[in-house]
Amino acid sequence: MRNLVGAMFVLVGAALAWAAVTLRARRIAARRAAGIPDGAEPQSRLFVFGEIVRPILLFFLAWVGVKTVLAYHWLDGGRYLSLFDLGGFLAALAAYGYWLHVKTKHPPVDFYAPVQPEAAGPAAEAPVAALPARGAPERERAAA
Description:
Layout: H1 4-33, H2 45-74, H3 83-105, H4 138-143
């Protein structure tokens, strides 16, 4: 019973690591199935936000890990939790950091610009002359 908390954290960490590995494989396969080249950059502002925030969140995860280890030793955590419990918590934090990294590094296919087939020439473009001029009076718009 003493190591029950640590075992639960290890299971959570293993589940998060497995989820990250399978998520990465699924997103790479979906990107290849959509015909998106491997070096393509996502065209989403949300992706850019994830790129900016990821290092900050990973820093805070590391900070929580360091503070937990220091609190464990300063406050005599061995009376309440075993070292396996502490290690399980740190493993869960590390697995969460890896999952977060994969989630932001490999965005969904929706974040990429759609792959456009080659245009068939000038006939494929929209006729601009058929559109009414911007700011034209209502009667000219009605006549068009």
